[in-house]
Amino acid sequence: MAESRDLTDHERSVLEFLLQGDWDGADALRHQLATATHAGGAKATASFDVAVALDAPRAPQALSLQGKGDVYVRVENGTLVGLGCTAAKLPPLAELFAA
Question: Most buried of the four, 14, 21, 78, 92, by CB within 10 Å?
Answer without folding.
Answer: 14
